[in-house]
TrEMBL record:
Organism, as annotated: Deinococcus rubellus
Coiled coil (residue ranges): none
Matches recorded under Gene3D superfamilies: Glutaredoxin (3.40.30.10)
Keywords in alphabetical order: Disulfide bond, Membrane, Oxidoreductase, Redox-active center, Signal, Transmembrane, Transmembrane helix
Annotated TM spans: 12-33
Signal peptide: none
Family: Belongs to the thioredoxin family. DsbA subfamily.
InterPro entries, sorted: Thioredoxin-like_fold (IPR012336), Thioredoxin-like_sf (IPR036249), Thioredoxin_domain (IPR013766)
SUPFAM superfamilies the UniProt entry points to: Thioredoxin-like (SSF52833)
Protein name: DsbA family protein
Amino acid sequence: MTRLNGSSSNNRIVLIVGTLVALLLIGVTVWAVQRNQTAATQASTKTFDLTGQPFLGKADAPVTLVAFEDFKCPNCKNFEENIYPQIKSKYIDTGKAKMYKINFPFLGDNLPTNDSVLAAQAAECAYDQTGNDGYEGMSTIMFRAQGDETQVWATKEKLEDLAGSVDGLDMTKFKTCLDSDATKARVEADKQQAVNAGVNSTPSVFVNGVLAANFSADEIGKAIDADLAKK
């Protein structure tokens, strides 16, 4: 009897010790996974120079969106006309987020005239005169007038004509700005930011530095909501 009782007691001790070891291993595994996930998130978080970049929304909004676009990009046109308004209504107009727009002109790289760059320069020229409103106004008109992405359509003459419909622009100053390529260096700097961040398509939207899985309103909204929940 004694021997049996001792055996039973030993078995219980072994079981308890085994359970504690298993729990410890599970805890270590969970910690390691969480640590790896945190490290992965930190590694994928990009930092951008947003000084002097056009933006929409309140400057103190808790979530920062950064959108890279090319004015020749059909997907960007779709984003601006059909998707962005949903984000604007739900998050930007309510003060939850602000959106910066950075040029990533690449579709014209292999064309006789790089009108991706010219279109971006035109938007910057408008921004120089009337700030965020000028950039947004010129952006809206260029997307509305967008031509075939495989053809040169955003010539300086065409862009100057389109700018005439943007409120508040002094056309003499705009023409001088565009004709002199005054904003070209800034546009090239924007493009370099995209390259440095590993952007390979447009539109690409970052939510607090993390690239959204796609540019749908649902996906971007989920990312914004997740970041707001951390505040």
